[in-house]
Amino acid sequence: MDLTALPKAELHVHIEGTLEPDLVFALARRHGLTLPWDDPEELRAEYRFADLSGFLALYYDCMTVLRDGQDFYDLALAYFERAAHDGVRRVEAFFDPQVHLDHGVALAEQLAGLHDALAEAGRRWGVEGGYLMCFLRDRGPAPAQRLWQLAQPLAHRLLGVGLDSAEAGFPPEPFGPVFDQARRAGLHAVAHGGEEGPPSYIWGALDRLGAERVDHGLRCLEDPALVERLVTERVTLTGCPLSNLRLGLVDDMRHHPLSRMLEAGLRVCVNSDDPAYFGGYLGDNLEAVRQGLSLSDATMVELCRDSIRGSFAEPGRRAAWLAELDRALV
Ligand code: ADE
Ligand code: ZN
After folding, report:
1. Are 107 and 151 in contact, with CB atoms under 8 Å apart?
2. Residue 253, domain CATH
3. What is the C-alpha separation between 125 and 113, in angstroms, rounded?
4. Residue nearest to atom 1 of ligand 1 (CA)
5. Is the pLDDT of residue 322 over 90?
């Protein structure tokens, strides 16, 4: 079965995680910035990560080249082209504005570049979607609140809010008040949880943040009552297999917990997280689990179905894509 032909949504991709080494160098040249690596190959050679924190340090370093709206446009358009090639119809992408604000890029400018790219992707490839603004959990709730003050007048340009960055030691509950405000402004809420943090962080994301999806959610399997809750409430978990492998959460794709999650009745979809760093875009992630876990065509279609069911797309759009998936299996 040709997976690229299946309609699908990408619900867990950090737009800055699509920053390829060639673009890092092109943007550094554009802005006259000096990088600590001689060329893109030398940078790529750094992509061996011991854990999430090791990855995040390099990921934040590379972001220093994103300095204006045009950079965000170029970054996002390059990603949308790759996603369209993988059959992605809808993208709900994260971005980390706190880092870019530190570099003097205003939130409105970040959003202008991102939105222009999405509009162009719609015209060129029929890709639709929106952006999820993330709070960096390791900076704590006060900076998150300051970001929300900046974002509130621009809330109509956001699909939702998320919570990302280093997880262990940073539970979700302190971010409850800022998530309450974002949800009251009509935004969707999602949160990373159970990537490296314990199941209690997933409970907290659901109960205190009102998270409608949990990003990663791998460690829910350690808590049967949590699995039951996630199954009953049909909460989508946005899995990222190559990310898990590259960050050492899984030692081999043949041992990835995706199969166990599906067997438990969880709603899981496959995503790329930070594809420029982890060795593959959405299509590569789907192929990796198909081969590693010997998944059937029916299961591959089910994963695409879950991505669409878990998206915040308009119901009519979801129904049309689901009908297309039904036809793919006959
Ligand atoms: N930011 C970018 N990628 C991330 C990940 N996998 N987990 C948490 N924060 C992130
Ligand atoms: Zn992520």
Report:
1. yes
2. 3.20.20.140
3. 18
4. 165
5. yes
Q: Is 195 a catalytic residue?
A: yes
> Into how many domains does the chain fold?
1
Helix-helix angle 176-184:141-151, to 10 degrees: 20
SS3 per residue for 218-260: HHHHHCHHHHHHHHHCCCEEEECHHHHHHCCCCCCHHHCCHHH
User: Tokens 């996630």 appear where?
Assistant: 230
Q: Is 220 exposed, middle or buried (0-12, 13-18, 19+ CB in 10 A)?
A: buried
Q: What is the DSSP letter of 11?
A: E
- Mean pLDDT over 121-148 rounds to 98
- Rounded to 5 degrees, φ, ψ at 273 are 65, -85
Q: Which of 58, 195, 285 to mutate for ligand 1's pocket (most ligand atoms within 8 Å of CB)?
A: 195
* Cβ neighbours, 10 Å, residue 81: 15
Between 199-207 and 224-232, two packed helices, what is the crossing angle to 10 degrees?
30
Average pLDDT, the chain: 98
Q: How confident is the model at residue 193 (pLDDT cuts 50, 70, 90)?
A: very high
Q: Is the pLDDT of residue 329 over 90?
A: no
For residue 330, the model assigns a pLDDT of: 79
- pTM here is 0.98
Angle (nearest 5°) at CA 318 between 317 and 319: 90
16 Cβ closer than 6 Å to some ligand 1 atom: no
66/15 Cα distance (integer angstroms): 11
Report the amino acid identity of residue 78.
A
Per-residue confidence band for 83, with pLDDT thresholds at 50, 70 and 90? very high
- Asked whether 196 lines ligand 1 (CB < 6 A), one says no
Please list the residues that pair with 131 across neighbouring strands: 93
Q: Does the C-beta of 92 come closer than 6 Å to ligand 1?
A: no
Q: What residues contact 36, with CB distance under 8 A and at least 6 apart?
A: 61
Cα separation, 80 vs 131, whole angstroms: 13
Q: Supply the range of the domain harboring residue 287.
A: 3-328
Residues 104, 65: contact at Cβ < 8 Å?
no
